[in-house]
Give the backbone structure.
Amino acid sequence: MLLTLAQAPDAVPAERAAARQWYSDARFGMFIHWGVYSQLGQGEWVMQNRSIAVADYEWLASQFNPVKFDAKTWVALAKAAGMKYITITSRHHDGFSMFATKATRYNIVDWTPFQRDPLRELAEECRKQGIKLFFYYSQLDWHHPDYFPRGQTGRGSGRLEVGDWPKYLDFMDAQLTELLTNYGSLGGIWFDGMWDKPDADWRLAQTYALIHKLQPAALIVPNHHQAPLPGEDVQTFEQDLPGANTAGFNTKTIGGLPLETSLTMNDSWGFNLTDHHYKSTRELIHYLVRAAGYGANLLLNIGPRPDGTIPPEAEARLKEIGGWMATYGESIYGTRAGPIAPRSWGVTTARGDTVFVHVLDWNDPTLALPVLAGTWKAKSWDGKPLPLTQGFTLTLPTASDASDRVIVLIKQKG
Ligand code: FHN
């Protein structure tokens, strides 16, 4: 079964090709980082950053009781924001499983007073409300005794310097089998953490084949910060637009797969009590639009609180973005990167013979665009004709405080 996955992007089975297309059309998803770490309010890396020993972290896990968790509210918020899918941490680097699993007792049902499986509740609610569900799954594990030899992290947890690596890989495959069997049809699996041991044998071909055997339409989204590998379906970038590397660990190589960029709303993924450094709604809309201009989805993160509630700053921004998407969504959903490459003033998106010019940062009354072949007419979002010279200079509608002036260019037939 090894290495049967080296397929060209267009050579995947029909159901996966359709899933990729759905995915690219969706353009906007909700990322959720939520786990026992949320209790300490210092982000999802707290076990590593504070060198918390396994036994102490196990106690912390035994206290997790998010009594206010309500899947219906979370999914409804994603919908209100105009998001089409949710990607949630089923297991982060701390190794704690946020779902019912027989592969380890270290899971939310068996280890905590909560005893419920929030992922099952979320899966049911997503199905009801028409949202696709992806599971984030960490390959890196700071808790599991067989995650050995260790990688670049997880050295402060006091674990023994032994472990059986193939056994760890079997454990992951067993959990992935559960995730892909017990929660209905998934959007896919979002992997993270392989970068901790880039040179290890992760048995990727076997694991990817297992996933696609269990659910042929499930997409594999690997956050390994490398160019796409065989068997993968989406190339994801973290805190960067495709091809940029301000984060310092993203690859600049863009492959031929659907694209995604993940972004924090403040500076943290997991709940951080003191991080109120939230991006404004305008900044977030700009990021969403720019991502679409690069042909990429935006996976926008929230870090719910340990009781299961969502920080009000995040909720407010999501609702505001949803208001914007209700008006301008047509220029984002189902589009692809437009014919004019992203510029500092903004980006273009396109669907068929219609190009959407998103003017984000530009104060002049006119905007010179590269000439597009054919004859084009321009109109404002509310349908008023706008002057467009043959040299492709566009007269813009009066600048307002709108986050994005969307101009519609329509190619004339004949
Ligand atoms: O280490 C993680 C981090 O905690 C978070 O989950 C992000 C999300 O993209 N990814 C990792 C770093 O690459």
